[in-house]
Amino acid sequence: MKVLLYRYRSILEPDIMHTFDEFGLETVAYEREMTVKDDTPAESVKHFSRFLMENPCDFIFSINFFPHVSEVAQIFHLRYVTWVVDAPVLELYTKMITNSCNRVFIFDRALYDEIHPLNPDCVFHLHLAGSVSSRREIIEHPGKGADRFAHPVAFVGSLYSEKDPMDQVHDLDDYTRGYLWGIMSAQEKVYGYYFIDELLTDEVVAKLKRSLPVYQIPEESFLTDEKLMSLFYIGNHITAMERADTFRRLSDSTDTYIYTGSDTSAMPAIHNMGFANTLLEMPLIFNRSMININTTSKAIRTGLPLRIFDILSCGGFCISNYQEEIAELFTPGEEIVMYSSIEELCDLVAYYLDHDREREEIAHAGYEKLLNNYTYEITMQQLLYKAFEK
Asked: What is the sign of the dihedral through the CA atoms of 292, 296, 301 and 304?
């Protein structure tokens, strides 16, 4: 069987290709999206259709959902299998989500609950996975200088300050600005329940739209102004607020190392190590650091982000913010540790830095749970079985 992998430089794609190879599938990669980012939808359809005619396959696969890929798959009568690993993914709200060729797997149940009714027979909920085999090779044969990746507390990722669309907002009246910043400050402190949608009035949404220099929802979209404002604009801003506050507080009391390209000048006590190489350095950071922090983007309302699976697949100890679905996959306190406030996070970090045996036992148990249940080989077998079940 031959699969066409539609690539756009997702960090998951090497693991997907390796898994397809393990399954004995022949893979051909379409890579235009990796370098050309300004094609119009019509151009995207044209180029992809031409490639598909020159490279016949049995089905198409991508990380996240591409409407023009679904459109082409529908025309060619091919199954389009896609694994949604981010949130928000605004393309999920386009009319192409209703195509019968789709087999869409969504990791976040709250997002799944919104999208599933649009195509009930073709949209599924499925958690993410971790790559043990590729990480193990790096961890067991690290090369010289690997000790520099061993830290008391580590975090790998963006602080979202450079991804904050609310920076575009201008000329909001004082009441609306105060209202928005009030509900965002309240949401920052709450884990496990996202209430922004309930507090956005039509008037506030309208004023926020007028304050943006560029704002557009695609035609024939299921996306609403309220949903776009809630998850994309406001959700990303809350994430930036939360990460800034979290690592400022944590670094004031604990030796904290962060691998990021974000600006950390407002955190004088933190150690900014710059970017980490995803394939060669990140596994060593997770494996060798005493504590790894996961802070989930607010747009991921219930699911487990990829970072948790990355940490556990490397045998790392993970402390994560509370997410509703974590307890469905891992046992809190035995395989992973969760916090529900910044204050609790600081207390947990201090505790586990002083309790080596407990920390190491939890890290090992989390690794074993992932190894036996949530590797790419296990999870993608479930995904493909469901995708071709009928």
From this structure: negative
Q: Give the pLDDT band of residue 214 (cuts 50, 70, 90).
A: confident
| Gap between the Cα atoms of 19 and 308, Å rounded | 20
Average pLDDT, the chain: 95
Characterize 273-307 residue by residue with b for buried, 16 or more Cβ atoms within 10 angstroms of its Cβ, and e for exposed.
beebeeeebbbbbbbbbbbbbbbbbbbbbbbbbbb
CA distances (Å), 260 to each of 195, 286, 350, in order?
A: 29, 14, 23
Average pLDDT of span 303-332? 98
Could you give the angle at the alpha carbon of 61 between the alpha carbons of 60 and 66, nearest 5°? 95
The pTM of the full predicted model, rounded to 2 decimals, is: 0.96
pLDDT at 217: 84
The predicted-structure confidence for 83-132, as pLDDT tens digits, reads as follows: 999 999 999 999 999 999 999 999 999 999 999 999 999 999 999 999 99
CA-based nearest residue to 91, from 130, 124, 118, 110:
118
Distances (CA, A) of 383 to 12, 105, 297, 343: 15, 8, 24, 39
Return the number of other C-beta atoms located less than 10 Å from residue 381's C-beta.
14
Alpha-carbon distance 18 to 131, whole Å? 10
Q: Which amino acid would we find at residue 371? A: L
Yes or no: say if 308 and 293 are a contact pair by the CB < 8 Å rule. no
Residues pairing with 63 in the sheet: 83
